[in-house]
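Re: the 651-residue chain
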Amino acid sequence: MTSQVSSPAGKSDEASEAVVGEQRAPHIVRTGATEKEIRRLDRVIIRFAGDSGDGMQLTGDRFTSETASFGNDLSTLPNFPAEIRAPAGTLPGVSSFQLHFADHDILTPGDAPNVLVAMNPAALKANIADVPRGADIIVNTDEFTKRPMAKVGYAESPLEDGSLEAYNVHPVPLTTLTIEALKEFGLSRKEAERSKNMFALGLLSWMYNRPTEGTETFLRSKFARKPEIAEANVAAFRAGWNFGETTEDFAVSYEVAPASQAFPTGTYRNISGNLALSYGLIAAGRQADLPVYLGSYPITPASDILHELSKHKNFGVRTFQAEDEIAGIGAALGASFGGALGVTTTSGPGVALKSETIGLAVSLELPLLIIDIQRGGPSTGLPTKTEQADLLQAMYGRNGEAPVPIVAPRTPADCFDAALDAARIALTYRTPVFLLSDGYLANGSEPWRIPEVDSLPDLRTPFATGPNHALADGTEVFWPYKRDPETLARPWAVPGTPGLEHRIGGIEKQDGTGNISYDPANHDFMVRTRQAKIDGIQVPDVEVDDPAGATTLVLGWGSTYGPITAAVRRLRAAGETIAQAHLRHLNPFPRNLGEVLGRYDKVVVPEMNLGQLALLLRAKYLVDAQSFNQVNGMPFKAEQLATALKEAIDA
């Protein structure tokens, strides 16, 4: 879904996330025989929650798409169980989708929902603790019967025992209304019930004046082979809209204006991190004039990249779903040897299996992208929850001295640029490169400005074409490990090129010739040279946002950018002075990082791990980096970070 935005203003760094749902001046409209008030808000946070089979991810995705087309800034947080079909009506089976949208620049999916749509008792119980007093709760009363309530420990109905008095509860018999609306379609009760999520979507679309045409088009496309199901879903969607318009329980609807001042002029679309990564890899292949080869084994939350890239053969992309993680990276490295941009996608457990081949890529000095979409661990851990605890694994998780550059995107849209940056490093320096995304970025979404092709970097890299070294007797030969004096990269020789025959393998090579060598001095030289090549990679200096001469710096990496920035805005709005910096390049670090850290009395490093970046900073720069850590499978909340940073400032 794309939208045009025409505004000269860039994203505001001054916008505050301290006020949720600020009301603008209301106005009244007449609908049929009734008058309904429309209240203007600056932002809203909605959470759809239900059973895994209730279609909450689809509902949230459709609401997000229409919100993106309307021109709001937005941020999303899908949250679902790891099981394909967790037990129905149980707390472990609850799936939710949170959407934060606004008429200004926002950075996070929001700390707490203004509106909770609870499709059953389990959804209510699993989410009620996050809902602030005074918020709206829409409940499907048809599910609040004895058996579903007993499954989650409700002895009495929370709709009747007074426990929800602090909220604006809207009891809606979603199932009954949906079945009634679909009578004419001749569907079974079970088939009709499946459309109740579309009824809920229609109701919320009315409440927040969302466009409807896109959803109806989507439903007819999705169920094109079953037109009766398509029309039933459209009918349920319209019934939900009409219910909101006519019922007295919803006397007010809300309006959130487009965020026309939050974006530079351009064409935008809503994009998730994994989709942005996929597009970035395609763009990297085009800009390098190389075929892209993905060797991958499906693993949550990285599988979407394999699914997406498999659709783009027309852009020279080949995808190979391997029998295991080791085969996937082996094929990708073989493709790099053959002259392609080799890519492998995985998560933490897969990185462990790929480590030997990553070491081989270090030894062979070939370009290779290792995309790690981090998730909760160790072992299988929390497959559908987020974490950023693979940093030390990416840095050191191989035998021997095997340095690998590390790049980390900070937002879903930034995954596109990070993929291009990782490809630049891999191709220029002939090295494997880690790209560390995570489940929060992968599944979350935000508006993305579609770049002009002319603005993308030129990634073309010449292959070796002939001899590059003259022996003492004048004979011209090809040395596979003769290095570029600036980058220390060795030549990239495509197999089959006449005169460029050379050995490959994991045994140590002699400098220059590439012959097998067990010489201690040569091994020492090769180890130090490979390290020097990584240390010499050109990365931009880290930029510091410090408008007031602060003494405390908050430094983050990866997906913590949104919550950190939102927390910093809150503190500055309250009169506090604090500086902020964020790292994309984690190996090598930016050259000015040591100088930046030395400017501040206190350095706070929030991470969704137990302090891995802080450990690296302490070791390299001897700074007293203070960790603030969370490993509960969820992203930081802005209020939580603001409190911790205020304590650090005052300490």
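The radius of gyration is 27 Å.
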